[in-house]
Design brief:
The protein contains 7 helices and no strands. With 190 residues, it is an all-alpha fold. The chain has a single domain, classed as PhyR, sigma-like (SL) domain (Butyryl-CoA Dehydrogenase, subunit A, domain 3, Up-down Bundle). Helix 5 (136-147) runs antiparallel to helix 6. It is globular and about 55 Å long. Mean pLDDT is 79; it is low at 1-21.
């Protein structure tokens, strides 16, 4: 079967590593990781309406725990690990949340044509639906490695599991995603 190319849910900007000399600075972490954490929360399944709250929670936790940060891994993997756990918490909370309906529609200026936007939006919805079928551990490893492009050692550090366990979760997630894509293709092309 040919390889399936999945669209990225994250922005094209990767988080630049923060130089840590002595104690890390919360302002530098926020400045350097803020945009990436925001897009990563979306890619990890946090609802659009909850992304800002989850984003704030990530940096509140970073601020609270910064004094206990030990540089065993990279600062980036530490922040990612917090992000993965916060996203998991928000997705679990989703089942009991009530959505607030409003008549106001926000206006946005889109650089894409309507057809391009529709195609991208449809691909993103398909990817999110497929990722929603994965359990939290597999989803986190898949998103961090396949979509965000982190090295597997950083992925393992982020989700706090042994390296071989991370590889095992990635293999299982890839199999589940491939199976979901095959099912979708058979259904769409009947």
């Amino acid at each position: 079967m040919p390889a399936v190319s999945l669209p990225s849910l994250a922005s094209t900007d990767a988080a630049a590593p923060v130089q840590v000399s002595g104690a890390p600075d919360i302002r530098a972490i926020f400045r350097d990781y803020g945009p990436f954490v925001h897009s990563m929360l979306r890619s990890l399944g946090v609802r659009e309406s909850d992304v800002d709250d989850a984003f704030q929670e990530v940096f509140v936790i970073v601020h609270r725990r910064l004094s206990t940060y030990e540089s065993r891994g990279t600062l980036r993997s530490w922040v990612y690990g917090i992000c993965v756990r916060v996203a998991s918490h928000f997705r679990r909370r989703l089942s009991s949340a009530r959505e607030i309906v409003t008549d106001e529609v926000p206006e946005a200026i889109e650089p894409l044509t309507p057809a391009e936007h529709f195609g991208e939006q449809q691909a993103r919805q398909i990817l999110v639906a497929i990722l929603d079928e994965l359990d939290d551990e597999k989803r986190a490893v898949f998103v961090l490695f396949e979509l965000e492009g982190l090295p597997m050692q950083e992925v393992a550090d982020s989700v706090q599991c042994p390296l071989q366990t991370a590889y095992s979760r990635l293999r299982a997630a890839r199999e589940a995603v491939d199976a979901a894509v095959r099912r979708r293709m058979r259904r769409d092309f009947k």
